[in-house]
Design brief:
Length: 278
């Protein structure tokens, strides 16, 4: 297959490129700079440099492919408009389309499935109408919703747990640390994108979770080694990390990823606890 994607030089996107190229697919990464193009080519993809907010330009690139994938995010206040531009391009191109979401969409839930009611925190509430537009578009569309992604030293856990130490060297918890996080290795996430693309038809939402749902305390203890952990109040966590991000990390979530497993997916990466132990 020829696959065109956004975000091919990012944390998840670069893993997806590696997975697709290794499986023999031709990949073109849509990027916004010559520097990013060089990085994409180094990863085995072709590259096209342009303005991804220009739906016409992006649609023309999508139309050249067998399927389109959107993984990129701006990380800023223009994220909503960016997603809308990409979706408009996908609709114009009319090819099978894979959109990227996240597990926070379902809020506190001890058994998340794709049919669970949506209850996103404020940080990701914008996703609900945007993703509904994908599902209503008439495209053969799939929305991939990974859990907390980790691996190769990257991802949220490595960024917010290991470096967060108090004056005694203890790893700071997020709240009291009793909440569970879904977890999935970045290389296992990439396999799901490949399986979805090879499946060819729209699958609606697909939760990508390994089925291992450690508590934040378990994760912090793994990151701390012998130094120990330090709980903190919800108010202190919000002050330290920002209210929106903190409230997302305070969600108590568990999932098995059964629908993804139904595609033939078997997660095989090391667990998040193993990753944090180093």
């Amino acid at each position: 297959m020829r696959i065109v994607l956004t975000g091919g030089t990012g944390y998840i996107g670069s893993a997806v490129v590696r997975e697709l190229v290794a499986a023999g697919h031709a990949v073109t990464a849509l990027v916004r700079s010559d520097e990013a193009a060089a990085k994409a080519r180094k990863g085995g993809a072709e590259a096209a440099v342009g303005d991804l907010f220009d739906a016409g330009w992006t649609a023309a690139r999508f139309a050249e492919a067998d399927a389109a994938v959107h993984i990129a995010a701006t990380g800023g206040p223009d994220t909503v408009e960016f997603d809308k531009a990409i979706i408009a391009a996908a609709v114009q191109a009319g090819k099978p389309y894979v959109h990227t979401s996240g597990i926070w969409l379902w809020g506190d839930n001890a058994d998340i499935t794709e049919e669970s009611p949506l209850a996103p925190p404020a940080l990701t509430a914008w996703r609900v109408p945007v993703e509904q537009s994908v599902l209503d578009s008439g495209l053969a569309a799939t929305i991939v919703a990974p859990g907390i992604v980790y691996g190769h030293g990257g991802g949220i856990p490595a960024g917010v747990l290991a470096p967060a130490r108090d004056e005694q060297g203890r790893v700071k918890l997020i709240g009291d640390g009793s909440q569970h996080w879904t977890s999935v290795h970045v290389d296992d996430v990439a396999v799901v994108y490949r399986l979805v693309l090879e499946h060819g038809s729209g699958l609606g939402r697909v939760v990508v979770a390994s089925g291992v749902n450690p508590t934040v305390r378990e994760l912090a203890e793994a990151a701390a080694g012998g130094a120990g952990v330090a709980p903190e109040s919800v108010e202190d966590t919000r002050a330290r990390l920002g209210e929106g991000f903190a409230d997302a990390l305070l969600l108590d979530q568990q999932a098995t990823g059964a629908k993804a497993r139904g595609l033939g997916w078997t997660p095989s990466g090391p667990s998040l606890v193993q990753e944090l132990r180093g």
